[in-house]
Amino acid sequence: MSRLIRMDHSGHTTLAEWTADDPGAVDAAVRAFRAELDLGYFGMVSTGEGHAEQVRELPLDAELVIMRLPISGG
To answer: Are the CB atoms for 45 and 64 separated by under 8 Å?
Structure first.
């Protein structure tokens, strides 16, 4: 089962879970992903030990997609 989570003040919040063979769950996950993008979050997917890439579309085959806010600083 794949998961979409948002990193937040509690550590993380699960936004959606889906399997590729459940169209309703996939649709809900895509809508949740897009809603987070609209709020300014970035979608991140691990590409290996210590590496991740930003995604602009929900990768349905990813085990874990993490939504996070941009790092602020000066």
So the answer is: yes
